Amino acid sequence: MNKLIPAVVVAAALAIPAISFAQSSEQGLTRAQVRAELVQLEHAGYNPAADHVNYPENLQAAEARVTQEKLAAGDTSGYGAPAAGTSQSGAAVQPAQVAPNQRIYFGH
């Protein structure tokens, strides 16, 4: 019994790192995929070295052009920039109108 406890502790100490570094089956983008997307964006007019002032707008415009080119070519692979679209969330809320003789705050 005395030898069993240290053996379990050693086995657990060796098993925990192996379990904690297990990779999931879902992988991110590969280096080649990221490079291919960057080349597509550069062909669409995006220049990562010079677009520091208008960075988000220029990148989003290039992504929209790439998406439009892919949709025009019939590519629906799902890789690349998100599809351009619109969304609507509802009407604007109008502020409540308060009559001139009404007080907004009550109290002392």
Q: What's the Cα radius of gyration?
A: 29 Å
Biggest beta sheet summary: none
Structural class: mainly alpha
End-to-end gap: 77 Å
Question: What is the number of helical segments per DSSP (H or I, 4+ residues)?
Answer: 3
What percentage of residues falls in helices of 4 or more residues? 40-55%
Give me the count of strands.
Answer: 0
- Uncertain regions: pLDDT < 50 for 5+ in a row? none
Strand content: under 5%
Mean pLDDT: 75
The coarse overall form would be flat
Order of helices and strands: HHH
Signal peptide: 1-22
Organism: Paraburkholderia silvatlantica
Pfam family, one: DUF4148
InterPro entries: DUF4148
Structure description:
Keywords: Signal. This is DUF4148 domain-containing protein. Residues 1-22 form the signal peptide. Residues 70-95 are annotated as: Disordered. The protein is mostly helical. The protein has 3 helices and no strands. The mean pLDDT is 75.
How do the strands and helices of this protein lay out in sequence?
Elements: H1 4-20, H2 31-43, H3 55-73
